[in-house]
Amino acid sequence: MAAEAIAAEERLTLRQRETLRVLVQAYISSAEPVGSSTIQRVGRLGVSSATIRNELCRLEELGYLTQPYTSAGRVPTVKGYRYFVEQLVERVDLPASEQRTIMHQFHQIRLHLDQWMKLSAAVLAQTSRSVSLVTPPRAASSGFRHLQLVSISQRAALMILVLADGSAHQEVILIPDYIDQDGLNQVSNRLNHRLHGRSLREVRASVELGPGGAEGLEGELLARIIQLMEEADRVSLGEIYSDGLANVLRHPEFLDIERFRRVVDMLEHASLLEPILLRMLNTNGVQIIIGGEGPYEAIEHVSLVLSRYGVKHIASGVLGIMGPVRMPYARAISTVGYVAQLVGSLMADVYGAYA
Prior knowledge:
Arc Repressor Mutant, subunit A; Enolase-like, domain 1; elongated; Beta-Lactamase
């Protein structure tokens, strides 16, 4: 349920809001149904247990709580969790000492972009004690940066194409007529001058509108460059980096072997998570997806706390954590938000250097 839907529904009184907040936090800590006596002791609402029981009954009627057993306390529903994360959870920064530790780890590898994803996954898993998910940065739209041609025989050359997001493609191409290295340099220099900084759409237009068109090797290279840029633009997240699967077993929800198997399936089969992660590429800030809510029935029993990271209009990825619906959301939000901001700032430095 979106925040707009919550706002449009019945408004909770201050006492009901506090009762719900205390109950959700107590359930997150204990994984046991919460009764009125616990709320009275922990919440310090200044009212009797009987009054709290009345509020719990009302919250249950409104769909925020459920009572798993007649004699037991109550637990939050998906609707209750959504209200909690949208309206009641306290947004706090990750402690400064943890921020310094994480920043130090990243600055040790700041020049090794290939290691950022693995470190992000490890840091998120360790800090949140959940399963981490990290996708590599994906170009907002493929753009041409540089072409290099290296002669390897009289009839073949190595083509190295670098796109705007830093990704490189190498392949051996056949040369119809012998061209030495100086000739290959002239061809690549002409194409670099013509295409540098252009998007796929602009490269296509330059070919269609260019005077006389390109022939021979140059024409073949242009066609192949366009094909490679089209492939780069196809919707795909690539490898999903993950860490912390063992953390799942710390939560009683996943001692059920069937629920644990579903988590493993989600991590092993990207098709289950990819539609959700792709949707995150068009969002800002930390997003919370609660399993079983709306279109997310397939991920029942887990929640995802995710954030887009990267450089707007250049390259973005998604990172976050997956854990039980009963997760400590305040810490999860601060952890994911901080790591996303840190990786984004490092990427801005790198892409700025190549601008």
